[in-house]
Fold this sequence. Notes:
Elements (H helix, E strand, L loop, with lengths): L3 H30 L8 H23 L9 H24 L25 H36 L16 H4 L7 H17 L7 H14 L19
Amino acid sequence: MSSKFNIVRAGIYGVVLLWTSICLAIAAHFQSLLFINDITRFVPFTIFVCSVSILVLFILLGCSVLRTGNPISARTELGCLGLLGTLWLALGAYLASSESENANVECFSAGETALVDVTAFSMDTYRAQYRVLEAFSLFNVILIWEFLLFLLIMAVIQDIWLTPVTSHSWFGLDPKVAELPIPVVSRSRSRGRAYETEDQTYGDDNGIDEVTLQRQIEEEMGRRDVFTFTVPKTGLRITNPS
């Protein structure tokens, strides 16, 4: 049974993978249509960032479900998240500050200088896709860096640098330990009751005076045919001292 932390971790990585796939699809679409120059230089950079992100996230998620255990330690995973966060931060900053967002799109046929009207791709379509690319890049920056800072703080508090994050119990006991049965204590209670019964049968000093206790002892001895003998004290006399 997976812990809540592993479920949240897989969900965050899944959302980042979804947004990264959308950014990669838009960048690949731009790559097939736009001529690469100074204005459209963001396209190959976006493809690179998305490809690295998908590779790293698939490795992190794939190693989490290995039967032999996750070989990636918390320190390595923090380094991977730091790399992805830096790449997406650089891409988001480049897209937000670039002049490519307001660039004019002109379509030409191959080998010709005359403008061609393409209904499937226009300036409005380009700008809309560019804004989607910019928004999803910033979303990935926020999500990756927030999870990175949270994981870093928890790793510092609990000191688990060399332990995989998926095998550590972050918020309490391990679910396997929590499912152990409660120890049986009924046997010791029954013995205690037996001892109490014996104490009540033979009595103790609480509430019983010496006369009553002596009478109970005599009655018990009479019931069990116990007899007492009194041996008189005798003295020895020396008749022939020497």
